[in-house]
Amino acid sequence: MSLAIDKFGHEPSEHEAENASNSYLMSLVAVVAGLPLPIMNLVATLFFYIGNRKGSHFVRWHCTQALLSQASLLPVNSIGFWWTISIIFSNEQISSKYIAYLITIVLFNLFDFIATMIAAVQTRKGIHVEWWLYGSVTNLICRA
Questions:
Q1: Is the pLDDT of residue 4 over 60?
Q2: Widest CA span in the chain
Q3: Are 42 and 74 in contact (CB under 8 A)?
Q4: CB 87 within 8 A of CB 98
Q5: How far apart are CA 37 and CA 91, in angstroms?
Q6: Which of 78, 72, 127, 77 is nearest to 106 (CA)?
Q7: What percent of the chain has pLDDT above 70?
Q8: What is the spatial distance between Cα 75 and Cα 59, in angstroms, rounded to a whole number?
């Protein structure tokens, strides 16, 4: 993590830091609102991204990184969601593969939740946070 002034050439204003932080918080709020539906996080983050895509580079960059993280969670969570639905509404048995997949999903989502909270707090302070993998892809998408 480095100060935003190093990455973007200026120190983000209070408003920019708040918007960048909110881009991460949007997905956490969506978890509460649409818990059983995995697409809710992505939709909420996408709407926030669309609303801020013409903002400063700092805000756009963090909105894009938050959107990429939610886009990667969608297929993983959707598979678990529909697998669970198929078990509930059919005669399919709970297998060790299903249990392993659920454990993987929980760990993946827990990691994302913790990283999202850290990113929200740090960007609110005006500190630039680049996640492994997502940060590199975001840099390719959000060239200044």
A1: no
A2: 59
A3: yes
A4: yes
A5: 23
A6: 77
A7: 87
A8: 26
**Cβ count within 10 A of residue 130:** 17
Contact between residue 12 and residue 61 where contact means Cβ atoms under 8 Å apart: no
DSSP conformation class of 93: P
- pTM exceeds cut of 0.70: yes
Coil, helix or strand at residue 66: helix
The pair of structure tokens assigned to 6 is 């190093």
4 residue type, one letter: A
127: helix, coil or strand? strand
Residue-wise pLDDT for 121-135, tens only, equals: 999 898 888 988 888
HSE-CB at 83 with a 13 A cutoff on CA atoms is 16
Terminal Cα-to-Cα distance of the chain (whole angstroms): 19
On whether the CB atoms of residues 126 and 11 are closer than 8 A, the answer is yes
